[in-house]
Amino acid sequence: MIGGFIRNIIKDKVMLLMVLPGALWFLFFSYLPMMGTVIAFKEYRYSREGFWASIWGSKWVGWDNFKFLFTTNDAYIITRNTLLYNAVFILLGLVLSVVMAVVLAEIANKKLAKVYQTGMFLPYFLSWVVVGYFAFSFLSSESGVLNQILSYFGAEPVNWYSEKKYWPVILVLVYLWKALGYNSVVYLAAIMGIDKSLYEAAMIDGAGKFQQIKNITLPLLSPIITIMTLLAIGKIFYADFGLFYQVPRNSGTLYSVTNVIDTYVYQGLKSTGEIGMSTAAGLYQSVVGFVLVITSNYIVRKFNKDSALF
Amino acid sequence: MSTLVKKQRDFHKLSKTWNVLFNLFAGIFAFLCVFPFIFVVIISFTDEGVLARDGYSLFPAKWSLSAYRYVFESGDMLLRSYGVTILVTLLGTLLSLLFISFYAYAISRKSFRYRNFFAFFAFFTMLFNGGLVPTYIIVTQFLGLKDTIWALVMPLAVNAFYIMILRTFYSTSVPDALIESGKIDGAGEFRIFLTLVLPLSLPGLATIALFSTLGYWNDWFNALLYIDDPNLVPLQSMLMRIETSMQFIMQNSTNSSLSLEALRSMPQDTSRMAMVVLATGPIIFAYPFFQRYFIQGLTVGAVKE
């Protein structure tokens, strides 16, 4: 038995050597942190004697961290913000990127369509820091363009970075600006893959372009739309940290509308120092996220086995 | 022949009005996507005095190169950050390719007895993760990477999703028979990988390399978490830091002359925008080339084994 095991190892030694660096990476950067979630059930105390001593030395507090988290208003606010923003992103993102893909596919001049696509794809390649600067050039209260336009029409300038009510709209617009081009490429690729003879047949039957879109393009896109949406729902508990941290410039007055689970966990770690509660929030995110991914993947499998993640 | 095809295709087209409307719709959105960058470029070439008077403007009353002059003259900080970013990007992409291509190749080989175990070992990390705080504690206290260049390189080095993409690529573009023939000719596993498999999988590797290059170039999050040493701050993170310290000084500068002094030594509005332009420049130039591989990567990722 053991001899057989050793023989196998020797036989596969080259392959094992090949996976070794990656496997070690996963061990250190993924699996050890998974073990580290025990901190959520402890009152974490940093110890000079290093990592293990810190973990062992900290006192067990059971579910206290979670109790604190869920008795404050924070848990409600961050969950609500994360879910609502992502829901809007998924819905609007889906509709607009499908529309954009259809539009790009139908434009007669293919060179122009390519130029448009290249332009739309650009924001995807920029970092959130740069996008934050872009937003600032519009929203800055002293020199921003938006206030200049407002004053041109005789309206009062707005202090954008401290007015809560505008931020849901601003964040949605910035998200769409950055993601739309990228997402529509996925649908565009699917449209390009549709058998051209279907359109020929429809044309002979006298279907106009819009009837073709309605009766051929959209129905044939619906499987990939379903799958992309389900996979996005699987990730609905994770927010894009960059969007919610860089674009509102981490402005404290805006927290009630910009704080999501990811930014909350970061603040707990770096500024408020509530390690235990912040770990609890992170674990809550991971566990619910896990359940959602498994569920949505299960549903995807029912629709189309090939598109499921596993 | 060509006129015939052209005539036939005309039936597929939209009516003239709709075609114009579609063009406008896509064109305007595409323009809006590019516009903020053009705007920031214009701001960076605006005269500081004019900017203070009129605010950001598309047609500034006076142009000036002084922002760029300032950045390059007092550009120690910028040059250093450029250096850090370039180093991290090169080193990171290289390591990333090495780790990912080896791992993906091994789990793509049907003869590897433990392939399912290692495939799952990678895959599970896509489903569940320990979260930010435990990761932070492991990286800083267990691995001791805080304030080292490795804190910028290692966290992004491996990614289960890229492994899955590349594994699919290997199993679809490298035929088993080829590997068998290599074996018959007496080549060892490593030699087969290097001389037979790698050349065939270059497009796949290029895709991963570009994903990874972009990831490293644009990364600021790891610097935010792990870097306090001003000598190790990458570009994106430096842009952030300038901004935060500006805000800090503004908020606390009621009457102290010290903060006024500090404010004066900070890069002005135009210079900060110039830095944004300089940090984004390489991406803007490289990206029409990137784009093709990204689209390829998207479609490769969609096909499963």
Brief summary of the model shown:
Chain A has 310 residues and is an all-alpha fold. In chain A, 72% of the residues lie in helices and 1% in strands. The longest helix of chain A has 33 residues, at 74-106.
Distance between the termini of chain B: 40 Å
Radius of gyration of chain A: 25 Å
Instruction: List the helices and strands of chain B in order.
Output: HHHHHHHHHHHHHHHH
Helix content of chain A: over 70%
- Of all protein chain pairs, which has the greatest interface, and how many residues does each chain bring to it? A-B, 99 and 106 residues
Distance between the termini of chain A: 32 Å
CATH superfamily of the domain at 72-273 in chain A: MetI-like
* Major sheet attributes of chain A: 2 strands, antiparallel
According to CATH, the fold-level topology of the domain at 72-273 in chain A is MetI-like fold
